[in-house]
Amino acid sequence: MAQHFRWLINAFAVLVASLASCLPAHAQELRIESWRSDDRDIWTNIILPAFAAHQPRIKVRFTPTAPTEYNASLNARLAGGTAGDLITCRPFDAALGLYKQGHLIALNDLAGLEHFSAVARSAWSTDDGTVTFCLPMASVIHGFIYNKEAFEELGLKVPATEDAFFQVLEALKKDGGYTPMAMGTSDQWEAATMGFQNVGPNHWRGEEGRRALISGAAKLTDQPYVATLRHLARWGAYLGRGFKAQSYADSQTLFSLGRAAIYPAGSWDIATFRAQAPFEMGAFRPPLPQGAQDCHISDHTDIGIGVNPASPNVEAARTFLQWMTTPEFATLFANALPGFFPLSSHRIGLEDPLAQEFISWRASCKSTIRNAYQILSRGIPNLDAEIWNVSAQVINGTLSPEDAAARLQAGLAKWYGPQQK
Amino acid sequence: MRLKFTPIAIHTVLLTYTAIALLPIALIIANAFKSRRAIFTDPLALPGPDSFSLRGFAKVLAVSDFELYFINSLTVTLVTLALVLLFAAMAAWALSEYAFRGRLFIGLVFAVGIMVPIRLGTVSILELMVALDLTNTLTALILVYTAQSLPLAIFILTEFIAQIPKDLKDAARCDGVSEIHIFFAIIVPLIRPAIATVAIFVMVPIWNDLWFPLILSPGEDTQTITLGVQQFIGQYVTDWNAVLASLTLAILPILALYLLLSRQLVRGLTAGAVK
Amino acid sequence: MTPKSATLPLLTFFIAPAFLIYAVFSVYPLISTMVLSTYDTDAAGGHSFIGFGNFTTLLTDDAWSGPFWNALTNNAVFFAIHMAVQNPVGIVLAGLLSLPRLRGRHTYRTLIFLPTMLSVVIVGFIWQLILSPLWGVSEGLLSAVGLGDWFAPWLGQEETALITLSLLSVWQFVGIPMILIYAALLNIPEDLTEAAQVDGIGHFRIFWHIKLPLIAPTVALVSILTYVGNFNAFDIVYAVKGAIAGPNFATDILGTFFYRTFFGFQLQQGSPTMGATVATVMFAVILIGVMIYLALMQRRVQRHAF
Q1: Which of A296, A360, C230, C274 can bridge A206 by disulfide, Cβ–Cβ 3.0-4.6 Å?
Q2: Distances (CA, A) of A183 to A18, A24, A95, C124, C148
């Protein structure tokens, strides 16, 4: 039926050709698509000028989209051919989907890729590991950032166990001078990422639990997951007044104004707080549940970068990526954006003490990644989206931890074979 | 039941509603001129000598190109408006004046457009714009907005043309004036009052649209003010000075333009209504 | 009026420009979207014909039908609130503004219409800031009149988020029914109301018994415009709550559901074909509403004719 209208399009093509305003062709201009809008100034003022010093003929611009809109608007622009030349990749299935649709080129022959371990590359490789389509950039670590002045004022100690953690929160609440913990459930993803995926790995024993879910050996209704959700259910009492309408940015502001004592963090928040918080900060890792011996942290391969095959400047884009494999880039990036920990094997010195604290946990704890990212979010309902939803609801008190776990399991079992047995 | 409508009661109601309409906007503008501290400690106060700050504006103007966004929006809106008025008036005239085969069909096809949002065809519009090499141009937006606005404009103008007395046209026809001449010399001046109505229905949605700029023309050079502000706020969401300042910068030009033109717009509406 | 006959070149001259632009950039995309809804997408983005399979999935598979009915119900509530608040308030304001010898009517009209001129994105941000528990403006205002306890994070609670969003939209768009009805009221010949005024009948009764019945067609038009506008709405939810329309999809309407299905969100891939299916269903929903309106109008006109 659509064919009937083709002639109209052709007629119109002639008509509008004269109207069309041609953009001047910049032979060597690259545009980076990214969700890291918080980092715009750092890219524009520090990282890109350093590249320009090497390759003055390639002009690079950093044009981010707000994180919640990034996936959708990037997909739209890729479909429409208006996307940038370099594409910042979400890990695992989101980027894999783009590669399968032909929106990313294979990077196996990129010089410098050998500086990245197989583990780092696995987040942006096909399931069989033969093709890598994004260059790993950084991982992020979850934990808690706290206001040192508030802790000193009330004589509080950094909690190591969950019991101690809730005692600290209770003490803060009793005192009333500070909002005990700055987080909201309006945007939902913090409840999942800074909540569920932050405190959870200690319960499900990191990689062990994550792999058991994929193989079908463990279920989301098992004790570790219910316990994680029960832990989250207790958070509601310690969040700010009106936390249900509090957005991510509101939480950041609440903490950086010095009104809240603890902030469930992703290490990427360090840069924002360095710029805005006028007080001394510290960090502590996710508290251990009762009886747990070894600790697990979410050290998530979070951000990579690839090349859009539709770009008129694929070679220039590859040149840029090659530069991103160098120690120079890694050092620049790690220090300009403390909290994004480079994934290359180069040895780099981190200057920021908070970032040093986060990365030190790698030595004492075992690393894992967010459990819904690999394989488990390929169907509908989408496990990651479901975790957002139920984590926020559990904190809001509108869903019990047990029901939440049941819902997660039912949703996954609906389409994921190994969980249907 | 007998309600007494004293002038005081009427004005109280109208003033209250006017306040509801304006206070939120005033609050944003007032706080845009305050320091970060003052914004949070006393949001309802007007900026005073010790709380006055232009930091937000300095930031916005330093890192984004508001002037360009504004010109882009203005170009898209005005060009679309001109195209819609001309083409819609022509089509409305032909549909209401002449008998021909297929009139009902064409009329119906346009009528569907009033009810169906063009947004539902986004997938194909994107493919189309790619095929025409029009992505990241203002032309793409103008074409889509023109297509989107034509049906309603034709509908409004047809109603209007139907009210034009027959004698006027017949007199001209007796004098042997050509149909095209009748349209441009007699009809167009007569439907001028309807332009205000059409303008409001055409301009407001276009000026405010986020969807098509986001999808068709997100490039730096072609961002409209709505998209520009949305992206800017997304990028500086924790910097309240900058957020409030960018909102203010987005509000003020349209406010000024509207207050400047409102007399014309409303005169057009009422002139059409008197008869 | 008896239409004249005209030559083909003349008709082409008048109609072709509008028809061509409209056909290419509106009719064609819509039809091709409907065609697309009968296809399936594979991982590589290829399409294969599956007839009405997508519709069956949308309406019967709980992973799809749950969110779909939720969005449709929310959309109906969104529309109901506009009908119950926006249009009556618009009529009252228009009625007051059209009273004879009212001073400052021009100023009122201009100022009350002002929010309609603002972008939904900007309105969304303004209200998000005002209702933010962090900033405390609305809490402060309520406390000032002794209602501090009434404050709640309205945009964050499942029970209140949709109502709050609808009211924000009403706040912005009340100018449109106001201005349309106002124009219709001015259209009423003065001799119709003069007699009543001479008899000493109050403004309210004149409005209720004489003017309102006369402008009923305009009120009906406003209602159908509201219906179409509401079932297309997207921006206000997107600007305030994002594409996931939280909390727990309490503010999800067809527009945001379409957006998520089409472009994907977080780790879920977008699907052009399922998106096209949702778009086609939205088309049907809007069409049904418009048909009902047209049928009612038709009957009304006939009743008056006999």
Answers
A1: A296
A2: 54, 46, 28, 21, 23
